[in-house]
Amino acid sequence: MNPNQGGYALELIKGDDVLYLDDNIYINEYYPQPDNDYVRTFLFTDRSIYRPGQTIYFKGISVMQKTKGGHKTFELIKDRKTSVTLKDVNYQDIKTIELTSNEYGSFTGTFIAPQGLLSGQFQIVAESGQALFNIEEYKRPKFEVRYDTLKGTYKINESIKVRGLAKAFAGNAIDGAKVSYRVVRNARFPYYWCFYRWGAPSSASMEITHGSTTTQTDGSFDISFNAIPDESIDKQTKPIFDYTIYADVTDLNGETRSGETIVSVGYESLLLKIETPEQVDFNNFNAVKIFSTNLAGIHVPAQVTLTLKKLVSPSKTYRKRLWEHVEIQSISEEAFRKDFPLDEYKNENDYLQWKEEKVIWSKTFTTTQEGLEYLQKTGASQGWFVLEARAKDLSADKVGKDANEVIDKKYIRLSSNTNPQSLPNEHLLVTKVKTTAEPGEDFSFTISNPYEKIFLLYCVQPSSANHEIANPSTIAWQSISGNKTYTYTIKESDRGGFYVSGWFIKDNRYYSFQESILVPWTNKQLTLSLQTFRNKMLPGSEQEWTLKITGSQKEKVSAELLATMYDASLDAFKPHYWQDFYLFAGTNQKIQFNTSSNFIVEPGRQFYFGTYKNVHSYDKKIPKFTMVGIKQFLFLFWNE
Q: What is the mean pLDDT of the chain?
């Protein structure tokens, strides 16, 4: 049977026990790419939009992609003739020209944007390559709409005034222009620890106000609105309300330009943010970044008290729930443990619910714009910790002891890279030293679990650029007790990276991990540096520009440069950018494991026994159904 033509339905039989899995299992084989060569062409235009009659400048680069044994190589195609065609919006050929590539595999040419045709998206097409652009009867933008930088702090229900500015690209102000505006409110919640027990609140968008005004002689205009909050949201969730101001400005010539800005208002005017990885080696837990800003994201110095507390982890291992935790627990824990010794009673596996055991250290400091703060030593202690930052709010109506306290928390797993130990709730802990490596370096990671023994299905999948693609993966069963460390020496053929994944089943629960190891194409990178010089001793001297190109090892390289200059105001119609080459493949996972049809709660299943059996029905009447006060009929079926 060819698995690519369908799937399998499994029936497992052992003695008198039969398990029929009425789920289709699809297995798609991976077919390596055949050995062949083909041309890839990359096309670049100097702009993304043109008027009819304007000159379209383009450049192309031709590359030969060769595949042998699953391994890809690329070569520039030199001194080769190629056809380049301009197509209209209906994909009809307008003009074709013949060009020859130079020693760098590139060619250049021009087309004249046709007149009298349907406007829209045109394209230039070459062998296995294309470039898209628009030809329109556009009118170049004359002005733009901007807003003053918002540096102030605002309060809930306060009247806020925002100043905008309509200014021509030539520098003059746009006065007497009509401004149509509206203000829309949305809510966000920066502190997840305020609501993780019951889920994130929701707040629908709301238009606060709308109206119109006129720009002044200096091109400015003012928009005022009240910072109305969503009072249905609990203040304890620390919401921030973003008021987005949309303005459409139409000048005396009928040209309309739009601009928008956001004003953020909350019950507190200070924001704290802790930045640190979630899993850290306790020997390297030396510094974190702590930022204090106003709601506009501008740094505000604040005196912060930072405290590290250890959490109390469970003493036993309980398997994960298949259903949500009940709101009202009607069974005592003692009775529950008697009937369900393997399962969670509450949320024992959730470290966010754990109690604080002790304070490891505490320190007070003033934040800086860089946010870097060095820490005290934690000692050789593994487990879950909470890093807590506290500061007084900046609100002017409450100062000193009466000021609101702003809090941010970060839950951190401290362990040892050399000898990690999983907690009872950590059914599968993966500890890795780094996720990026170069050829010649060693990459290692450790798998830890609290069980005496597990059987892990372990899989290594190289990237699609590796020559081992003919054997796309290595899969093996492995027995693990406690910890197991895997070490790899990165090879040149590992460029592009690879995946390491695995899973095991314990007590009818599925646990898995997946790690991607990045091995970048640093050997293909070029470094560009731009330098300018002007002789100040020589009046009226011209400025000289020098571009320096070096390889990955700072060696000199011979390269051809493509550069263009265009009117950036055209980005208002269609932004201009160039496509990447994407010659060197990255990590591509080919095998994925899932348990979407296993270890799930299922209400029932229909069985078919191969032949139909006659059944007759009879009905039993229930004259009264006192719960709802109506008659109810129950239809039952019985086999002959």
A: 85
